[in-house]
């Protein structure tokens, strides 16, 4: 029997029993085939898509993005994960550095965190003034309405992870040398400020959950379920279809310029074959 457990600080009860790997891998492959079809359709039609991923630290945003992109072309699906703004960028219009990464025709841009930093981490950690916060809060709907009026498909996801699961993932990052790079002082401080982040999340939804650009919440305590649910939902929102693809025939080698091209490498430096 599948147990349920609500997110501490709010949220709808969700399944916590992990999805079996065999089922997960089969479903992921099926969805990734659909993502390739989406890619072909985006290129063929010149569609522009922006997908925003937000959520608490260790909610699994990077894992979802990785599964979306691992079987498609980086020339079509671009990931944008901006560092903290430079001193110069701090003097610009806040949205200016995000505008530079919006898609051209035939591109899908995945934002691993986005302009919503201002309504989240920047406010909680004091990286912006109250005036800057309120100004962005007031105008974010207009920014996004402009994107959509210009023809961009905008999809926004919030990955929701419970307190116990976040703590477990942070502990794994502390113990696992392959994951320690993921843990920063900002992450641990965010853990302490759990309810501050909950309140800013609620206020963010209040300010920007609109009919034309709604937020979609993904239950993310089970990473496998979260990835499948998110990808499946994303595909359901976009009216793509199969685009016929011409497969060129594989020609025979032209032997008119034949020579021993293996022997020609004999005196070059090779990587030692240790495995």
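^ Assign residues to that structure.
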């Amino acid at each position: 029997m599948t147990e349920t457990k609500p997110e501490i600080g709010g949220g709808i009860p969700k399944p916590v029993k992990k999805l079996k790997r065999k089922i997960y891998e089969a479903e992921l492959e099926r969805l990734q085939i659909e993502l390739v079809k989406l890619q072909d359709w985006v290129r063929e039609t010149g569609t522009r898509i922006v997908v925003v991923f937000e959520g608490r630290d260790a909610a699994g945003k990077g894992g979802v993005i990785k599964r979306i992109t691992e079987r498609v072309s980086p020339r079509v699906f671009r990931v944008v994960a901006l560092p903290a703004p430079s001193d110069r960028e701090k003097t610009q219009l806040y949205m200016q550095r995000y505008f530079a990464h919006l898609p051209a025709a035939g591109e899908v841009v995945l934002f691993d965190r986005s302009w919503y930093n201002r309504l989240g981490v920047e406010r909680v950690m004091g990286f912006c003034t109250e005036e800057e916060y309120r100004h962005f809060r007031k105008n974010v709907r207009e920014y996004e309405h402009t994107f959509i009026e210009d023809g961009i498909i905008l999809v926004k996801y919030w990955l929701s992870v419970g307190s116990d699961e976040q703590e477990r993932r942070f502990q794994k990052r502390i113990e696992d040398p392959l994951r320690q790079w993921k843990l920063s002082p900002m992450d641990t401080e965010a853990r302490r400020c759990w309810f501050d982040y909950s309140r800013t999340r609620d206020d963010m939804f209040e300010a920007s959950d609109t009919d034309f650009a709604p937020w979609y919440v993904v239950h993310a305590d089970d990473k496998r379920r979260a990835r499948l649910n998110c990808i499946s939902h994303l595909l359901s929102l976009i009216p793509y279809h199969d685009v016929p693809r011409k497969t060129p025939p594989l020609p025979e080698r032209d032997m008119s310029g034949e020579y021993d091209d293996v022997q020609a490498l004999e005196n070059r430096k090779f990587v030692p074959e240790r495995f």
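The two ends are 45 Å apart (CA to CA).
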